[in-house]
Each structure stands twice: as C-alpha cells, then as structure tokens.
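Structure ticket #2291
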Amino acid sequence: MSSLGPLSAATWKTMLSNRDKRLINRLKDIYGDDEALLESRLPLYHQAIDTFIQAYGDHAQTIISRAPGRINLLGNHIEHRGGHVNYMAVNRETLLVAANRSDDQVVLCNALPDRFSARNFAISDLLPPAKRGQWLDFIQTLNHKPHDWENYIRAAILYVQDQFPDTPIKGLNIAVAGDIPIAAGLSSSSSLVVSTLEAALHFNNIKIPHLEKAEFCGRAEWYAGTRGGAGDHAAMLYARKQAIVHLQFFPLRIEEVSLPEGYRVVACNSLVEHAPPGIFNERIATYEIGLIL
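Resolution: structure written out below.
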C-alpha cells in the first residue's frame, strides 16, 4: 500500500479538513470502502493532529503511524508455546503523530492529558552505551512505575537503541490519540509499542524485515514488565481488512483467511479489566513448568 508523509502538521490538518483525495485513498487502503466506517475514524485523526499542533506547533515534518486493537477468536495465550492463534484487528486504534528531533530527547503528550500526563526522557540517560546489547540483563535492573503509558513508548525506542548500539537513535516529539478501550484485553498497550516502533524506524532510517517486526516488538515490550509472546503485535502488523490472521511462531507462519462476504465479527466490552502483569507472568511461568514436567 502507498503511504503518505512526512508532511507538516499544518498540511495533515488541511488534508483532513478538505478530505484530500490522496489521504482518503490511503485510508480506504486501511479500512476499506465502507463510508460510515471511514467517517467514524476521521475524528481521531483530527484529534491526534490537533494534539500535536497544540504541543509542538504546525511546521514540523511529521508522520502518522497507527496500530489497531485486536481480538483473538481462538487459541488464547498459546502463541509463545508455538500454538496457532486466530487474530483479527478491530476498528479501534492508536494513532501516533511524530516528528524528528536533533537530540535524543523523547517528548510525549496525549490527547487525554488528565489520564496520560505529558512526559519526556533522554535515550542516553536510560540506556547508556555501556548497557546496550544486553537487553535481558538491562530490563531485569529496572524499577519503573508499572502500568505507566510512557513505558510502552520507552520500550520500543530503547529496544531499537539496544539492537543498534552503534547508531545514536534520534529523539522524537510525539502526540498520541487512541480509542482502544483500556485494560479490556484489546492490547491498547501493545498498540503503543507497534506505532512507536514504526516512527522510530522511519526517522532513524533503520530497516527491519516486516516479518521480524512482531517478535521485535514482543521482546521490546518486556521492558514494561510482561513476559508474553508477540501474537498481539503480529495481529496489528499483519492483519488485513475482513480477514482472520491464522498464525504460528517458531518460525513465524501466517495464513490469511477471508471472512465470507457480508459477515461481521462483533466484539462486546464486558467491562471486566484485563489481568494485571503479575498474574499474566505467573501464567507464562506455569506454561514453562508444565512443559518441563
């Protein structure tokens, strides 16, 4: 699919306001030709761009990276054991508007500042050169605040720096807007990792094979305290409209299964919060113990 950007934030704003044909065609690549669905997604794009402009101005060259939420129809929490899972992307997503910086500062703001306060960090402060290339050792020394939205952005950027230790990763100005329900099992946190990774790779001119990105994101997210697999990230990266992604890891194999014409999958919010990372990690450990036994 064709992509747009980088473009100034002012240009993005004008294109959205004028329903620019290039932009609409790009969005149809993503969402399909359903006009009602397309219209329902546009307000979030306006919110993301407006949040960026309010924080950083409208002149910087920016990109918009996105990652959808996901549901798993069958095969829950077995992808890290090599089992098959059946994912679909949903029409809720995280949008990340990013611009390059000349230093290694990462500055963050969110469209919901009362819930997700503004943050900033320096890559070299958190991951100095002497600690790069030792990801597992590094993350075992962390003592950061759990469940903090900044951790998932840190995860992607710091893991890029860890895996490319001789390339000083540039900082970013980032604005985030999303409508994936929080703690609802739709992987809102992983969507931050995926969308941040795409922006960091773009602005640092780093190439990772597309089929390696999911496992890259999975290892990056360990920074936040979980020790899961990369199925959620794979769903976001490899899903296609009106299709189920049937996939298996070790090695990664992907099969796209199209839904019959006219069928829809409806996901209902039970309002039950997802299990916290501690319980999740305990379950992962029991899988390992069971396999050994």
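Closing remark: The chain has a mean pLDDT of 91.
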